[in-house]
Amino acid sequence: xxxxxxxxxxxxxxxxxxxxxxxxxxxxxxxxxxxxxxxxxxxxxxxxxxxxxxxxxxxxxxxxxxxxxxxxxxxxxxxxxxxxxxxxxxxxxxxxxxxxxxxxxxxxxxxxxxxxxxxxxxxxxxxxxxxxxxxxxxxxxxxxxxxxxxxxxxxxxxxxxxxxxxxxxxxxxxxxxxxxxxxxxxxxxxxxxxxxxxxxxxxx
Length: 204
Known about the structure:
Elements: E1 4-9, H1 16-29, E2 34-38, H2 44-51, H3 58-82, E3 86-90, H4 93-103, H5 108-114, E4 123-128, H6 131-141, H7 146-149, H8 152-170, E5 175-179, H9 184-202
Parallel strand pairs: 1-3, 1-4, 2-3, 4-5
């Protein structure tokens, strides 16, 4: 597959969704065949999973998220990559390792086993900000679900993503940490330049 797969993960309030949306617009304007998607996906299974994170926990939620990921790969991500497109995915494997294993208490080896056959991204962007900034943003925009309801989870996520970084690098996933405690335009410009360089190298 000659497309490019970039995943975006990070604590709630880090600005992932806004950044992915603006980045898709920027890269599309510059002529790249870009597709933006998210997890849980927009499929029936993904919508069910997103709507019921308060009802399902632990092992059951981890299985739902992984099932949606495999369906997402089969129906959206892999076809787009095969069509030589650039895929930007808002949340992927790193989020499972933090939310299911770190926050929900699922054994990390179980989460890794569930995701044994997923495709690894060509680049994993970890978006973050100081915990006090993240909490302020969550207070302003409101919670998007159970994992953001507890203010204590912000500090836990901040630490857990630092730990997941080492794991991603250990399995050969190139990573980029972006501190979003700055103007979103600056963040988008930096990411656009990085992704364009990867795209150009892939299509020499």
